[in-house]
Sequence to fold (85 residues):
Amino acid sequence: MRYRINVRVMPKSGISDPEGKAIYDAALQLGYGEVRGVHAGRSFAVEGEYASLDEARKSADELAGRLLANPVIQSYEVESVEELS
Fold:
């Protein structure tokens, strides 16, 4: 079966996030004073053939931990695994 896996990768707490800081500063300059912080990350959509939903989830977790995120400075979350028709 074919699945789409969505993974979000973000900087870990306490890690410098210059892109998030630049967006935050720009938001304040544009008049969005209610913004209290911005954290910039990446989102990945991976499609693949897996025998089952459980296999797709397991593979997604391994792929994210080994390739999509740098575990020293980033955390990741497998946001969804959905079967495609």
Summary: Residues 2-83 form a domain with the Mth169; Chain: A , fold (CATH 3.30.1280.10). The chain has one domain: 2-83. Strands lie at 2-11, 42-49, 74-83. Residues 53-68 form the longest helix (16 residues).
